[in-house]
Each structure stands twice: as structure tokens, then as C-alpha cells.
Amino acid sequence: MQKAIYPGSFDPITKGHLDIIQRAARLYDEVVIVIMPNDEKKALFTPQERLAMIERSIEGMTNVRAAIGSGLTAAYARQAQATVLLRGIRAVSDYEYELQLATANMTIAPEIETVFLLAKPEYSFLSSSTVKTIAKNHGDVRAMGPPHVDQMIRRKYE
User: Fold this and answer.
1) Which of 9, 57, 127, 128 is catalytic?
2) Does 17 qualify as catalytic in the annotation?
3) pTM for the predicted model, two decimal places
4) Where are the domains of the chain?
5) What is the pLDDT of residue 40?
């Protein structure tokens, strides 16, 4: 059985994330979306709020679940007995950053492969940071994520 871990901050989850999740669910027996801390980002939502958003977003996906993680991603993946770390790539700049992470993870846990899934063109601009910036400035983000996520974002910025 191949288990893949899809780590990230998911603050908030977007349609781009969901596209990667749906595609990964076709490739792997089990996909675990793991909310990992990122000290370089200021979170809008608590890990528990993000978990609730993700769980609602993946309803009906029988081989996908979500969890809150901590520590090193490679160590989490090893403990979860995953064989793959999934990462989405939108642009060359993402690749440069992700290559550094993948190389570090390869050093920590050489038995775990990092697999990059390319963003579909319609999601290549989309990031959680973009969604938050637009929402903070009272822009319309309904097309960027599930309706329940839009509602939670609006409540945060009211």
C-alpha cells in the first residue's frame, strides 16, 4: 500500500490544493493532508480551523484524510509510514524552494520520495497568501476555494 503525505500550511485551503489532492487520490492508496507549522508565515486560521476546513472539503474522498502535524515533515512521514511526500508546483520559483526542501528531506529520510505535481494552468497564480490578501482588501475570493472556506474568511475579516 502506498501512502502519500501532502504537507502544508493550508491557511486556507484553495481550489489549487484540492486539485492536487484529487489527482493524488487517484495515484496513491492513501493521501494524508498534514497541516504543518510554518514559522515564516503568519496564520489567519488556527490549526483546528484549518483541519475543519480541509475535512469538509474532502468529504466523499474515501482514501483521503487530514491531520495536524508537528516537527520535521520527513520525520512525520516516516512515523506515519508514508512512502511519498507530495508537493505542488506552480512556477519555477516554487521549484527552487521545493528543491531545497526535498533535498533536506531526502537527507533526513532517504526512503521517502518527494513527488511534485504541477498546478493546472487555471490554478498557477493561486496561493493561500493571495487569497488572504484579496480577502483582507474586501475582494471577492469565492472562485478560489470552497464556499465554506469563503464564509470563514469573510468572518475573519469582518
Assistant:
1) 128
2) yes
3) 0.94
4) 3-157
5) 82
